[in-house]
Write a structure and sequence with these properties.
Blueprint lengths: L1 H4 L5 H20 L3 H24 L5 H27 L6 H27 L11 H14 L1 H43 L10
Helix pairs in contact: 2-3, 2-4, 3-6, 4-5, 5-7, 6-7
């Protein structure tokens, strides 16, 4: 941690560099350089971890930094999926249309996982559960890119399923909390004295 604190950069600068590396990986994906894209994405993931570590160890953890990190994470994920769409669009084959649909579904699911949590927390709910959070998505994407071929196709399908399943898990978590709040209010209303009634002493 001491070495991290001595880095002559800010956490936000590291976040932006990580975004640039992810964009580079997305371009490599789009042009079919899958293995190189996976390697670059590993470095981008390292920067994604490093910015938070630097912010915490140096005491420079601010709300704007967290906001910037989350926002650029969405750009990063979107870039990789767009790169995959461009790649699959140029490959042809029997399953091309299905792979394009799966990639689009994975993109929507990834965004929903983050949106559901952010929206829930803004309304005062807790939203921490989920089968497939961002670290798991990045690791699985790297595996798919490095091995390519059928492995990449399976990874994209898994991402399409698991990201949306995670979003649904979080929606259910918030629904359960909302229902508990509503039932608590109904119980309070049922036990509270009605207006205009006289309480005997």
């Amino acid at each position: 941690m001491a070495a991290v604190r001595r880095l002559p950069v800010t956490p936000n600068q590291i976040t932006v560099v990580g975004l640039g590396l992810t964009f580079a990986a997305a371009l490599l994906v789009a042009f079919g350089q899958l293995r190189w894209a996976g390697i670059v994405l590993i470095f981008a993931g390292t920067f994604d971890i490093l910015d938070g570590a630097l912010a915490r160890s140096s005491g420079r953890s601010y709300p704007y930094g967290a906001f910037l990190d989350s926002t650029l994470d969405r750009y990063s994920e979107g870039a990789i999926y767009i790169g995959l769409i461009a790649y699959f669009a140029g490959t042809g084959g029997t399953f091309q249309r299905w792979l394009l649909l799966a990639t689009g579904a994975a993109l929507a699911g990834s965004f929903l996982v983050s949106y559901v949590r952010a929206r829930a927390q803004s309304l005062g709910f807790k939203c921490e559960t989920g089968l497939f959070k961002r670290p798991e998505r990045v690791v699985l994407t790297v595996v798919g890119l490095i091995f390519g071929g059928m492995v990449l196709a399976i990874v994209v399908v898994l991402l399409a399923i698991l990201t949306n399943l995670t979003a649904l898990q979080r929606i259910r978590e918030v629904w359960l909390q909302g229902r508990a709040q509503r039932l608590a209010r109904e119980r309070e209303a049922a036990t509270a004295p009605k207006v205009g009634t006289t309480v005997s002493r």
